[in-house]
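Last lecture ended with a question: if I hand you only a sequence, what can you say about the shape of the protein? Today we answer it with a concrete record. The protein is Glutaredoxin-C9. Below, first the input exactly as provided, then the predicted structure, then a couple of comments.
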Amino acid sequence: MQVTANETGIQMASNIGIETEAPPTTMMVDHPYKMVRQLASTNAVVLFSMSWCCMCTVAKRLLFGLGVGPTIIELDHHGSGPDIQAILFQLVADGRQPVPAVFVGGKFLGGIETLMACHINGTLVPLLKEAGALWL
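The predicted structure:
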């Protein structure tokens, strides 16, 4: 896995649309819902993002700043990006922008508002520890 810094200075595992250690044969690219579900269930933290989205950058910086190495899926660089985004719209269900979308421990946490609220009220770090994303 190659780590690079993008324009925002955030280190990412790669510049492609999806970064995972799972072999391509286990990634169910034929159905976006299955892909989202598999990614969420096999990674401690998953962040669905758009490379141009400023709030996505805030979410990435917060997670990296806490010492978390999330799996980042840049939807605008992924072949199934629009289909995955449609799935995220259904999860959000209140008409808000679906990115950033954060999954912790296999469960949908929410967007930037929920992520920041959890950070401010002190519940984010325990969630990350429980999911295995933090060890200290």
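Comments.
1. Confidence is low (pLDDT under 50) at residues 1-6, 8-28.
2. The helical segments are 32-42, 54-65, 81-92, 112-121, 124-131.
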